[in-house]
Amino acid sequence: MNVQISDLFDMTHTLAGAYLEQFTYPWEALDGIAQTIVDLGATLDDDYVEQSPQVWVHNTATVAPTAYLGKPCIIGPHTEVRHCAFIRGSALVGAHCVVGNSVELKNVILFDNVQTPHYNYVGDSILGYKSHMGAGSITSNVKADKTLVVVKGDQTIETGIKKFGAMLGDFVEVGCNSVLNPGTVIGAHSNVYPVTSVRGVIPANSIVKSSHEVVAKKER
């Protein structure tokens, strides 16, 4: 089951690379995101402006005046935070990202070139390099019965945590209005069809056509 950090992400595309490399599984990093952002903030160069306490924005980033940036957060170079985006806090957003209209982020790491452009909720999640969430797609980060999240693939891994949305590997494409259920891990270069409910582990280089149909991509 390819769910380890080294299977999912290229660490050169995030300020959190050294932090993430301490762990085996990506969800182990969720608890320390806020403190990591604070620690990184103290090391940023003069190209970052601390616009309010523990809120650092690169001087090439664009932030709409109607967007809310809660602490702690870092907004990277050439990133666009659009109208009415709601960053609740504990958000490390990389370079060349899009945080779109009415998007909500909470306790997340977005690698470089991640796009969450339209009406997305992303909470307690990590999105890898050049991953993209289509309009209206969300991460569901708490189970309905409020029990601890379990990652299910060809084996079951107890995470020991209650809030865990999704881990998207590099170059993952999520279709519009899809729901990534608690404990979802999607391998790199995979695609999810629109309006799909996804749970468990999706292997790298897969196409999720429905909640019951996952196929391997054909080589070109």
Number of domains: 1
Q: How big is the Rg?
A: 16 Å
Helical element count? 3
Helix content class: under 10%
| CATH topology value | UDP N-Acetylglucosamine Acyltransferase, domain 1
At the first level of CATH, the class is: Mainly Beta
Give the quaternary arrangement of the chains: single chain
Low-confidence stretches: none
Average the pLDDT over all residues and give the rounded result. 96
* Sheet with most strands: 10 strands, mixed
Q: What structural class should be given to the helix and strand makeup?
A: mainly beta
Order of helices and strands: HHHEEEEEEEEEEEEEEEEEEEEEEEE
What do these coordinates show?
The chain has helices at 5-8, 17-20, 33-41; strands at 48-52, 55-58, 62-63, 68-69, 73-75, 80-81, 86-93, 98-101, 104-110, 115-118, 121-127, 132-133, 138-139, 150-152, 156-158, 166-168, 173-174, 179-180, 184-186, 191-192, 197-198, 201-202, 206-210, 213-216. With 220 residues, it is mainly beta. The protein has a single domain, classed as 3 Solenoid (UDP N-Acetylglucosamine Acyltransferase, domain 1). Strands 1, 2, 4, 5, 7, 9, 11, 16, 19 and 22 form a ten-stranded mixed β-sheet that branches. Strands 12-17-20-23-24 form a five-stranded mixed β-sheet, with no helix packed on it. Strand 1 and strand 2 form a beta hairpin. The longest helix is centred in the N-terminal third of the chain and has 9 residues, at 33-41. It is globular.
